[in-house]
Amino acid sequence: MTSIQDAAQSLLKTAIGLVPARWLPGGSPDPLMQKHGLIGAPVSRLDGALKVRGKARFAAEVPMQGLTYAALLHSTVARGRIVALDISAAEAAPGVVFVMTYRNAPRMASPALMNTKPKAAGTSNLPVMQDAEIHWNGEPVAVLLADTQEQADHAVTLIRVTYETAPAITDFDAAKGSTRVPANILGEPPSIERGNAEATLVQAAFQVDCTYATPAHNHNAIELHAATLAWEGDKLILHDATQMVNNVAWTLSQIFGIKEEQVHVRSPYVGGGFGGKSLWNHQILAAAASRVSGRPVRIMLPREGVFRSVGGRTMTEQRVALGARSDGKLTALIHTGTAAMTPHNECPEQFSFPARHLYAAENIMIAQRVADMNIVANTFMRAPGESIGTFALECAMDELAEAMQIDPIELRRRNEPAKDPTSGNEFSSRHLTEAYGRGAEQFGWEKRSATPGARRDGEWLIGMGMATATYPYYRMPGGAARIRLTADGRATVSTAAHEMGMGTATVQTQHIAERLGLAMDQVVFEHGDTALPPGSMAGGSSQTASIAAAIIAAHDAFKAALLKLVGNDSPLAGLKPDAVEARDGGLCSSEEPDKHETYVSILRRAGREELVAEASAPPPLEAQEFSMHSYGAQFCEVRVSEITGEVRVSRFLGSFDCGRILNAKTAASQFRGGIIMGLGLALMEETHRDPRTGRIMNPSLAEYHVPVHMDVPKIDVIWTDIPDPHSPLGAHGIGEIGITGVGAAVANAVYNATGKRIRKLPISLDKLL
Amino acid sequence: MNPFTYERAADGAAAIRLVSDNRQAKYLGGGTNLVDLMREQVERPKLLVDVTALSREIEAREDGSVLIGAGATNTAVAADRTVRERFPLLSRAILAGASGQIRNMATVAGNILQRTRCTYFYDEAARCNKREPGAGCDAIDGVNRIHAILGASPSCVATHPSDMCVALAALDAVVHVQGPGGDRTVKLVDLHRLPGGRPDIETVLDAQDLITGVELPALGFAWRATYRKVRDRASYAFALVSVAAMVDVQGGTIRDVRLALGGVAHKPWRAWKAEEALRGRLATRESFAQAAEAELADAAGLRDNAFKIELAKRCIVATLGDLIGETA
Ligand SMILES: Cc1cc2nc3c(=O)[nH]c(=O)nc-3n(C[C@H](O)[C@H](O)[C@H](O)COP(=O)(O)OP(=O)(O)OC[C@H]3O[C@@H](n4cnc5c(N)ncnc54)[C@H](O)[C@@H]3O)c2cc1C
Ligand code: SF4
């Protein structure tokens, strides 16, 4: 990402001359990298019981004195301006406290776009309710506060708005006719050419050249987007559902022209983020309405409100062309295409990222374009780019294997690169062929018939497919952690990180306990609050590694501070921080473990109530040295009705290579959850936008389909568990890899069952009739 | 949602009086459809008269028929022993619909009178002749994957979404109605209207008419029956196409047949033409296919739903094939 790279570059300068981080060449190795104890154990989520009992308080549940409830009115046209506005009936309705439109909204700066500044959280840089202009169908045009939610929901329907419409681009098919090259794709170049792929392609012994299409998706986390907020003088207190507390605080401070410290954001629990819980109009409008009205505000978007004012995954059209020699080696790999975007955001959907790193093709051509549309700004959604990019790339690999009459896994094996094919960097840790092998064995891949349509059970045709999964390793710069040890020998570790149900807090509690030599119930992990040392955003599957790096840095500082306290009477006297490690509630000499003193004893002798150490994580230089990714192999068996075209997934297995697995239970849930979301992407998920109006026509979970229990078979997940020596704790991200490759694995299985290639998602039954 | 008052009626007559006195009153069943539509501002009643407690019995009669109270929940009907023994088709159809939670709330009358899932009907920003006669229909050239292929009009291409009603149509069910002028019965197949020029008028009932029950006439023993539903996910989705089929086959010949389709029209679609084509014919795949062709001869597809024509044909053939077996 731009900001990440910028930050990394600038930090690079300061880092030169410093001791390299423990996971970089030349750094002193982290003893925990290989240690098996709490790390890796299948610990149940510490917040599980709280959540089951309804005791974990989410953003829309925080009580406040004199609270008002907000409702938004959304535009019904895609582009144009408001020419008449009648709020009198709404203002007169029972319980109404305040109605805000562009006419009386306070002046606010436009949100800074995410990735343009280190702490920017904006999903669009359009001004928010500052003028009469309309930019997408669903844009909020009024916010209404009332004493109850019911009163607000009713009164907002009484507002009358008249629009003068202007021509709008609301049809992707039409928008594709005029595209542009984005400045960059998350900091990477939009196009890459190695050799001459087009020329090689036409000469290749085997060729495939196909176009794939993927639809728009909307975010549908269980917890709706919500915030409860109040102004205390010039200070904004915001209880938000967000995956980026620090970024939300900074961006809001810019919007309202106040200092960052004047915005206090809390978000201890989030009911699912998936990339959608950043800064959208609703928080800004609620804060503005609260400021003007002087009343605390709760805003919880109804499901339709999320569809209308929160963006999701965008539409793409992708071309993948592959040329191979008769030995199966790729001579040409082309991955190009267009994603729908808006002129007001920077989210070009990095569908070409997998093709940059996956296969050893001699000639590579990558090119991404965007088509501007008048729609709600699209945004990150679980493995943005990679989820649908692997659909195209991995379907094309299957088509090539078919054309060459070789096993799809064998084709991939023959193209396993020794170095990153586009950057030329060494891989830090890549055991993909092992993941293929173990997955194939456990799944029973050898039972797959190479001939499509060969297996059936009554009207049901049975097929198997596989695809590669891949997702980059990211570690966000700027995170810090604080360790506070108290006289009772307990520790609290704090960082403004995010627990969105993935198990972040549980895994870091395991990590801290192991690192400090304490039991899990002796440590507390504090998170989700801008009053804590800054965390990094929970995005890009980066949080676990980012937090771990900050904790490791804080722990180094902690050991140094503790050793300063020990004095001459301690068994630890004279030892350097590098020569001690944590064990049994204290420190001991690494060389002579019997030289040990407990934390309680050290603090007591020093007459201290507590010891506090805080440090920031070193910059993520590892990702510049090495090509770093999570990998996997997805295996799928489907049954397709010959009569109706209905597709049922009957078996699924994901075999992953994601560095070291830190908690077998929460990791399995992440993989499975990703795969389930991938089944939705493959078979049913689709935002229906009316091409004439740009209006989303299925803004409800009744008509916007995600998998229900009956759509989900037993899903096996296995992993290599090989630590990456070049990442904190040896871990890679696991939150997004699960969804990648699933679309292709299903499509390839459908082909194997029926002989039909479906290149347009979702694979709905009409495409198979 | 607009403010409204809620009342529970003491009996049928009282309910009718309440609704007759207030032109903006509506009967309330489980509310799973009506309350949703109130949230969307599509329905704006000022008074809801809860009639769920009035008639919940399921009466198994000696003559083999069953009378189901209008307030019986979908779950209760599907689980009822007599219904399962005498009319397993009905149980199957009900269980193919919605979710366990919704079926626990939904009533028989409410299911019959539930309104279309046309997404333009739900969206106040769209033009819809059903919501506002004469406004136009945005679905005809819009997103219309779930819309009708049979019996539609230039005014409206919406479908009736019920599964239960498809089975009721095949079972020759009779709806019992109590109105301001007294009691009467209406055959289920005659209850719903095709859209014509007035898609806002969906049934032959008046606003004050109260459904009190549904009667399932006794069947002979020879019937074999089943319900097949095709949808976009394995459960919890409305039918793209569904088929309720009953056959009476003897010696390889179709003596009698009843066939109804769901998801294809503004009403549960009794496939009279296909029945006609099948009666007396040999039970062969060829005669099934000819019957399906006959039924769908007038079908018309829109931008997104033309596939339903082929899908409906295939489902008819496959369902009959499953019931009868491959005779030839
Ligand atoms: C998410 C979702 C999925 C669904 N999926 C399916 C599906 O797959 N298949 C399916 O068949 N259905 C499905 N349904 C629809 C469901 O079956 C209906 O909502 C339900 O049957 C309506 O019954 P109710 O008692 O709740 O009706 P209500 O909502 O209470 O009423 C519906 C209408 O009936 C009228 N009414 C009620 N009782 C009487 C009476 N006694 N006399 C006269 N008028 C009366 C009301 O005035 C109202 O107009 C689904 C619904 C939802 C919300
Ligand atoms: S199809 Fe019928 S219900 Fe749908 S918009 Fe048209 S008129 Fe309204």
UniProtKB/TrEMBL annotation, chain A:
<keyword id="KW-0500">Molybdenum</keyword>
<dbReference type="Pfam" id="PF20256">
    <property type="entry name" value="MoCoBD_2"/>
</dbReference>
<dbReference type="GO" id="GO:0016491">
    <property type="term" value="F:oxidoreductase activity"/>
</dbReference>
<dbReference type="InterPro" id="IPR037165">
    <property type="entry name" value="AldOxase/xan_DH_Mopterin-bd_sf"/>
</dbReference>
<dbReference type="InterPro" id="IPR046867">
    <property type="entry name" value="AldOxase/xan_DH_MoCoBD2"/>
</dbReference>
<protein>
    <submittedName>
        <fullName>Xanthine dehydrogenase family protein molybdopterin-binding subunit</fullName>
    </submittedName>
</protein>
<dbReference type="InterPro" id="IPR000674">
    <property type="entry name" value="Ald_Oxase/Xan_DH_a/b"/>
</dbReference>
<dbReference type="InterPro" id="IPR036856">
    <property type="entry name" value="Ald_Oxase/Xan_DH_a/b_sf"/>
</dbReference>
<feature type="domain" description="Aldehyde oxidase/xanthine dehydrogenase a/b hammerhead">
    <location>
        <begin position="53"/>
        <end position="167"/>
    </location>
</feature>
<dbReference type="GO" id="GO:0005506">
    <property type="term" value="F:iron ion binding"/>
</dbReference>
<dbReference type="Pfam" id="PF02738">
    <property type="entry name" value="MoCoBD_1"/>
</dbReference>
<dbReference type="InterPro" id="IPR008274">
    <property type="entry name" value="AldOxase/xan_DH_MoCoBD1"/>
</dbReference>
<keyword id="KW-0560">Oxidoreductase</keyword>
<dbReference type="InterPro" id="IPR016208">
    <property type="entry name" value="Ald_Oxase/xanthine_DH-like"/>
</dbReference>
<dbReference type="Pfam" id="PF01315">
    <property type="entry name" value="Ald_Xan_dh_C"/>
</dbReference>
From TrEMBL, chain B:
<keyword id="KW-0274">FAD</keyword>
<dbReference type="GO" id="GO:0071949">
    <property type="term" value="F:FAD binding"/>
</dbReference>
<dbReference type="InterPro" id="IPR002346">
    <property type="entry name" value="Mopterin_DH_FAD-bd"/>
</dbReference>
<keyword id="KW-0285">Flavoprotein</keyword>
<dbReference type="InterPro" id="IPR051312">
    <property type="entry name" value="Diverse_Substr_Oxidored"/>
</dbReference>
<dbReference type="InterPro" id="IPR016166">
    <property type="entry name" value="FAD-bd_PCMH"/>
</dbReference>
<dbReference type="Pfam" id="PF00941">
    <property type="entry name" value="FAD_binding_5"/>
</dbReference>
<dbReference type="InterPro" id="IPR016167">
    <property type="entry name" value="FAD-bd_PCMH_sub1"/>
</dbReference>
<dbReference type="InterPro" id="IPR005107">
    <property type="entry name" value="CO_DH_flav_C"/>
</dbReference>
<dbReference type="InterPro" id="IPR016169">
    <property type="entry name" value="FAD-bd_PCMH_sub2"/>
</dbReference>
<dbReference type="Pfam" id="PF03450">
    <property type="entry name" value="CO_deh_flav_C"/>
</dbReference>
<dbReference type="InterPro" id="IPR036318">
    <property type="entry name" value="FAD-bd_PCMH-like_sf"/>
</dbReference>
<dbReference type="GO" id="GO:0016491">
    <property type="term" value="F:oxidoreductase activity"/>
</dbReference>
<feature type="domain" description="FAD-binding PCMH-type">
    <location>
        <begin position="1"/>
        <end position="221"/>
    </location>
</feature>
<dbReference type="InterPro" id="IPR036683">
    <property type="entry name" value="CO_DH_flav_C_dom_sf"/>
</dbReference>
<protein>
    <submittedName>
        <fullName>Xanthine dehydrogenase family protein subunit M</fullName>
    </submittedName>
</protein>
